Amino acid sequence: MRLAEVHNHPDDLQAQFWRTDFPILKTKIHGRPLVYLDNAATTQKPLAVIDTERNFYSNYNANVHRGIHTLSQRATDAYEGARIKVQHLINATSPNEIVFVRGTTEAINLVAQSFGRSRLQAGDEIILSWMEHHSNIVPWQMLCQQTGANLRIVPVNDSGELQMSDFEIFLNARTRLVALAHVSNTLGTVNPVKSIIGLAHRHGVPVLLDGAQAIAHVPVDAQMLDCDFYAFSAHKLYGPTGVGVLYGKSDLLEAMPAYQGGGDMIRSVTFEETSYNSLPYKFEAGTPNIAGVIGLGAAVDYVRSIGFDAIVSHERALLSYATAKLTDVPGLRIIGRAREKTGILSFVLDGAHPHDIGTILDREGIAIRTGHHCTMPLMERFGVPATARASFALYNTRQEVDALVEAIHKVREVFKP
Amino acid sequence: MTDLRELYQETVLDHYRQPRNSGRLIDANRTAQGFNPLCGDKLTLYLKVEDGVIRDVSFEGSGCAIATASASLMTESIKGIREEEALQLLQNIHGMVIEGDKAGDMGKLEVLAGVHEFPERVKCATLAWHTMKAALESTGLPVTTE
């Protein structure tokens, strides 16, 4: 028996309790207990979320919004109930500011094509950063192609923090939008979004935040941040895949043209003229992922029942523990050492390609991600082809970090010169 | 760890640390690029083909142990053989890593047989070989095995 299996850290007591809510964590991989450290890619789901979707399909599945019959009423109540739960999670002023989409990527594409397309002209500028995920790069590249606008990219320093001085220089009379990650999926950096938004607003520039990595790990208060748009995915928040949220300030969403056309987003349709529905339905064409949205509602309930104070406190302590242990491994370099971080650790190891690290760790039951993490510009910036990335969630423990470190030493054994 | 020992054999690790035929071939007359963007393995293959025989070969690139070792082992096995024989070797490699075939005398290339137990790494092992095919057929298009 490995030492790591026996040694229960007392500080992990709470997390050990939370673990029992997640059925998949009992799984064995190659005969070993699953050590799931790929939460930045997707999180595991508590039984409450799994049961909610199952319960929907078993007991009240029906299409939403236009039905007269009982099941349809129930489904609609649950669907709209989830919208209110999300509103409260991020402290939006109204449920009409919560648009359900497929995920963060669709949310950003919606803003690019609806807000961006109707406002940008040739010569206008959009500010991004070198740490952005492809989902917060490509939609803007496409928009620039369509409109003749240009991108300005804020550099990232060696610690993985935004060069704020460059940001201030980039903000000028031609800037129409700032689109930034709240938290970097590769570096774990928490960006100073409140001051960024303050600065941008002084120049009359709206800000979109990619909240995919933030939503489960830092408390998000849309009114306090005063962000103009906020995008996130349910599956990063212990919820189902195929669902995401675009938060937008009412007046902005009101002024934006429709994104996708179809049923539900209309008020009336004739071949002479079609009028669009009010918010938020204007942006929700077609039958939505009803079960997924209701599942997201259950995920929000779960997270709020634990509370962000407890989650942040646990994950912060775990990050500290893991950072110290990984720093001690000879030949290991952590990429992303910002002062403010969430539980994401990207690293490279002398003599071993991230792929090979991933394969050896997998045989030990440990799931990490290897590759460019959809941040190819960031790999270029740090001069590496790929990194290995361990990312934590509320159910991870110090015991699991010990297992990770032990497995990394195994990798070093295999690849010793 | 028996599975891992089959994948990361001493020969594989040796070819990863010290890839044979590494570098750019000045008088190459066929080249091709291979790139698996999702994982970051990339290589450029240089061949000098005369009278249907691969006279010389080299490669440059960066990648994981499997991709690098496979490329290195490949360059050793195709130097001096006919184009058709090289393409036949590609078929044999496919059979070995994808189907798990044990047939044929593959010589040193047999060390790659362990890849069969690691399906997610097949694309690493086959990248160099598909790049070789593209070079011989002069398609001019970059190759990916993803």
Key attributes of the depicted protein:
heterodimer; A: 417 residues; alpha/beta; 7-stranded mixed sheet; 4-stranded antiparallel sheet; 15 helices; 17 strands; 41% helix; globular; B: 146 residues; alpha+beta; 3 strands
The most extensive interface between chains reads:
A-B, 20 and 24 residues
Are there runs of chain A of 5+ residues with pLDDT below 50, and where?
Answer: 1-6
Give helix and strand order of chain B, one letter per element, not per position: HHEEEHHH
Oligomer: heterodimer
> In percent, how much strand structure appears in the residues of chain A?
15-25%
Choose one word for the global shape of chain A.
globular
Q: Biggest β-sheet of chain B: count, sense, barrel?
A: 3 strands, antiparallel
The count of β-strands of chain B is 3
How would you describe the overall organization of this protein?
The complex is a heterodimer of chains A (417) and B (146). Chain A is of the alpha/beta class. Chain A is built from 15 helices and 17 strands. Chain A has helices at 3-6, 13-19, 47-60, 70-90, 104-119, 138-147, 164-170, 193-202, 222-225, 250-255, 290-306, 308-327, 354-363, 376-382, 398-414, and strands at residues 28-29, 32-33, 35-36, 98-101, 125-129, 150-154, 175-181, 207-210, 229-233, 244-248, 266-269, 274-276, 332-335, 344-349, 366-367, 369-371, 387-391. Chain A has a seven-stranded mixed beta sheet with strand order 4-10-9-8-7-5-6, sandwiched between helices. Chain A has a four-stranded antiparallel beta sheet with strand order 13-14-17-16, with helices on one face. Chain A has a two-stranded antiparallel sheet with strand order 1-2. In chain A, helix 12 packs parallel to helix 15. The longest helix of chain A is centred in the first third of the chain and has 21 residues, at 70-90. The radius of gyration of chain A is 22 Å and the shape is globular. Mean pLDDT of chain A is 96; it is low at 1-6. Chain B has 146 residues and is α+β, with helices and mostly antiparallel strands. In chain B, 42% of the residues lie in helices and 18% in strands. Chain B has helices at 2-7, 10-17, 65-78, 83-99, 122-137, and strands spanning 30-36, 41-50, 53-62. In chain B, strands 1-2-3 form a three-stranded antiparallel beta sheet, covered by helices on one side. Chain B is globular. The two termini of chain B are 27 Å apart. The model of chain B has no long low-confidence stretch (mean pLDDT 91). Chain A binds chain B through residues 351-356, 359-360, 363, 370-372, 376, 379, 385-386, 410, 414-415, 417, and chain B through 1, 3-4, 7-8, 13, 17, 37-42, 62-68, 118, 120-121, 124.
